[in-house]
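Quick one: structure for this chain?
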Amino acid sequence: MRFVVLTVLIGTLSCSIGAPREPLEVKNGPQPNHLVPVNPRPDAYLTLIHEKLHVTNPNYVSFTFLPSFAGETVVSVYSANRDGAESFHITTTRASSSLYASMPRNNREQVSKEVRISRFDAEIDAEFAAAIQRAWASLLLRTRYPNTAYFGLDGYTARFTAAVRPMGELWGETWSPHNSLPKELVNLGLALADYCSSDPATRPTQRAKLLKQLESFTRRARNA
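Got it. Here's what it folds into:
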């Protein structure tokens, strides 16, 4: 009986080794509960996003929201040194309409279209800035390629960066996530954009709520 089993195994291995070699492909599957690496070669669209919406040095974190059919949004959290004192800030920039559609190759008229850019700034405290950085970093440190293909054509893409010492800047992205840690991080990014453009009188209440959400997210992301 042992001889028969060994013969079958040898036969199986021989067939595997002798089979034609083809490129590996992955099947479509569920969305991962983590971010995936960013393509290191930005195309013309992403270059335009950087030129128009990335107006600060996000030395804490950034969040880039790229919907398929609406205006894009970028949120950056950063520190600045003024007269020897460190301060912390959130800047949000929003395109009034799709920058993608403003490119000649992406519209029917095949012309470059003007898009209005709005900018909002808010100063925050060190604790708030650190809580945001910890939340972003906790998920970015788990960034890896998925086992299945899940990207689509519509929906939105969200990109995240965080500066983590001594590693430098980490990058990751997700496409239209749902019921997952990436979805929660997208919601936090959008909430920070709203915070930055809101009435200053309402910010203390928003800050307290966001701080709890950020701390809860960080704990769960680290243990995921």
